[in-house]
From TrEMBL:
PANTHER family: OS02G0805600 PROTEIN (PTHR48106:SF8), QUINONE OXIDOREDUCTASE PIG3-RELATED (PTHR48106). It comes from the Bacteria. SUPFAM superfamilies: GroES-like, NAD(P)-binding Rossmann-fold domains. GO terms for molecular function: NADPH binding; oxidoreductase activity, acting on NAD(P)H; zinc ion binding. This is NAD(P)H-quinone oxidoreductase. Keywords: NADP, Oxidoreductase. It holds the Pfam family ADH_zinc_N. It comes from Sanguibacter suaedae. Residues 10-330 form the Enoyl reductase (ER) domain.
Amino acid sequence: MHVVEISRFGQPDVLTSVEVSDPTPAPGHVLVTVAAAGINRADILQRRGHYPPPPGAPSWPGLEVSGVVEALGEGVKGWKVGDRVAALIDGGGYAELVTVPAEQLLPVPDSVDLVDAAGLPEAVCTAWSNLVDVARLSAGEHVLVHGGSGGVGTVAIQVARALGAHVLVTAGSEERVARCMELGAAGGFVYRRPEGESFADALPDLVREATGGHGADVVLDVVGGAYLGANVASLATGGRLVVIGMQKGQRGELDLGTLLTRRASVTGTTLRSRPAEEKARIVAAVREHAWPWLADGRLRPVVHARLPLAEAARGHELLDSGEVVGKVLLVP
């Protein structure tokens, strides 16, 4: 089968199509013929040499796919050959075939395009596990989603709205804020400012004004160090900051006095490095609680572009450009 391998660490042109042996499903695993693979920030970090795949995962990137069940490993129940599925995987999605633990599969309803479904597993599992499991987001609360027009952000908006929360976003332009509002956000803030103006300094006042002085009960942050202080200052009393990315730095300054006064918390999480049993629990919760929203329209994939698998480098360039709304998909 053809896969897209990282020939060396570096720029997108290091992504190269190669041929490898077809995989076979181990006990408890399912072989899936890939309809599409989603590109994620983790893939870019892996390409640059900053995010190695976990032990046992293929060396080529790709954390989510959609496709059709091709074969079942020993002991697999509840799935059959020909089923339309989406899958959360540890790596190896940039390929024509993947093997997936059966517990990390999700059924793709007929109402959802099979290719577009590849843009859902990583984002929905990330949004659900962080907004619900970690942040305990509930109806009526205010949530601020940084990078609202990104792959995780577009899904997090929909998940938060389906839970009954009020959503604010940050995005790179008014047009992108408007796209977020089409997905259910109540409003948002453009983080690109004229030279000399600090968006981080302005953020707490913007959030308080937009929430009637209340502040954000939950902040879902992909930015990292550069926004740490501003995020904490934006929290309501009892607020929860959940950091899931470090796009602008691993280190930041934290005012402990503000944290204590607000009785707030700061949590950092990742998804890829979690043990298989934790991923299985997250996928099961998503299937039970969030996946039904696909049927009634409260949740849908947001796809910026579909590209041939062999053009993975162009897909990474698109994501690197910062102009993508939603997901870029690779189609074998």
